[in-house]
Design brief:
Number of helices: 6
Helix content: 25-40%
Strand order of the largest sheet: 7-6-5-8-9-10
Radius of gyration: 17 Å
CATH class: Alpha Beta
Distance between the termini: 29 Å
Number of strands: 10
Largest sheet: 6 strands, mixed
Mean pLDDT: 94
CATH architecture: 3-Layer(aba) Sandwich
CATH topology: Rossmann fold
């Protein structure tokens, strides 16, 4: 298990999905408005099918331990990950729209109504705000959200807004301890995480 996790982390870093201040010394401004010396962008993960398959397989192993009817992907990056997971574990897959469509059936949740107990799949959790929106939309659609599964949990503080368990393949600290960076960069990244 640990070897596979380390392999995936190194592959994500090698393919540029994980970047640090060694790549961009000024760092990044996150969606939350906070500055970060490490950036994780998994939007192009489907362009690396073997890596996507391994990640989806690891998430799938965890989801198989949960009593759920379906997997729901968070727009946009969570949708292909959820789809890969669903194919691997043979679970129905639904997804959330970013906004309610103005035509057709006007659905925000694309999943047959009979699937009530769902797990949410996404790439990264930072503040939990977008996951809270998904939980609220699914609850409003008469779904029970059992658990959230993400590839990376980069929360520096655990949000009390999310009242369901979050399980990640990797924490930010695990990533920092595995990626190939200088000792100085690793110390700066760990200092950021623990500040």
């Amino acid at each position: 298990m640990r070897e596979m996790k380390d392999y995936i982390i190194r592959a994500l870093h090698k393919h540029g999905f994980i970047k640090t201040i060694e790549d961009k010394p000024e760092g990044w401004i996150l969606k939350s408005g906070a500055w970060s010396p490490i950036y994780i962008n998994l939007r192009q993960l489907p362009s690396h099918p073997t890596l996507l398959y391994r990640i989806a397989g690891e998430i799938g192993l965890r989801i198989e331990e949960v009593d759920c009817d379906a997997v729901v992907g968070v727009p946009m990056t969570g949708i292909p990950i959820a789809t890969a997971v669903g194919l691997i574990i043979n679970k129905p897959v639904g997804w959330m729209r970013e906004t309610n469509k103005k035509y057709g059936e006007h659905k925000l949740v694309e999943l047959p109504e009979e699937y009530k107990r769902v797990v949410i799949v996404d790439d990264v959790i930072t503040t939990g705000a977008s996951k809270k929106e998904v939980i609220d939309a699914l609850t409003e659609d008469n779904r029970e959200c059992i658990k959230i599964f993400v590839v990376v949990d980069r929360r520096l503080e655990k949000s009390s807004d999310i009242n369901i368990p979050v399980e990640a393949l990797f924490t930010l600290e695990e990533i920092v301890r595995v990626i190939d960076v200088s000792v100085e960069t690793r110390e700066k990244l760990l200092s950021y995480i623990h500040s």
